[in-house]
Amino acid sequence: MELDTKKIIDLHKIDLRLQEIEEEKGDLPSIISDQKNGIAGFNKKVDSCNSEIDELNKLKSSYNTSLSDFSVKMDKYNKQMDSVRNNKEYDALLVEIDHLKSENGELTNKIEDVDKKVDELKSCIDDCSEKIGDLTEKLANNEKELQDKSTEFSVEEKLLLKDKNSLLSNIVDKDF
To answer: pTM of the predicted model, to two decimals?
Structure first.
């Protein structure tokens, strides 16, 4: 009976040491997981920003094409001013030129807005890239620390589990 009690006490000591080993690892596994998720989130945001930049560049390209078309039309109307025969034609050309100038101004403003948005997105990408770099560095350090701790306690943990299993198989329950 005294022998079984000693085995149970030894078993308890083993369990306490195994628990200490787990506590030594601390929150590193969950911290590592959070850091990996953070990196994935920032990568997703960078991809999203790059896609949006591509769409904005396509839109800007179409605006620039429209500006080129307006330049050609403006040249055409300016040349027609030389061949105007009456006030009515002159007034009609002035209305068309004013309309083209206002559309040209609107397109120029839209291009400026697109450029601002692209700059904001590039700034966001730079911020995310910096955060990814920081998290990657921290992740590498935490993974190394966890690996070191796991290596340090690996042999001891295996021996403790072996002793625990041995003790459990040797303990005889007298009630059954």
So the answer is: 0.66
d(CA 34, CA 156): 28
Structure tokens at 127: 């911020």
Hunting for tokens 């590193």 — which residue is that? 28
Pair of tokens at residue 117: 């948005």
Q: What angle do CA 151, 157, 158 make, to 5 degrees?
A: 100
Dihedral sign from CA coordinates of 94, 95, 96, 101:
positive
Cα–Cα distance, 132 to 41 (Å, whole number)? 9
Q: Which long-range contacts (CB under 8 A, 24 or more apart) does 130-137 make?
A: 131/38, 131/42, 132/39, 132/42, 132/43, 132/46, 135/35, 135/38, 135/39, 135/42, 136/39
With tokens 């009515």, the residue in question is 88
Convert the pLDDT of each residue in 41-59 to its tens digit: 999 999 999 999 999 999 9
CA neighbor of 143 nearest in space, from 132, 153, 155, 151: 151
Q: What are phi and psi of 15, to 5 degrees?
A: -60, -40
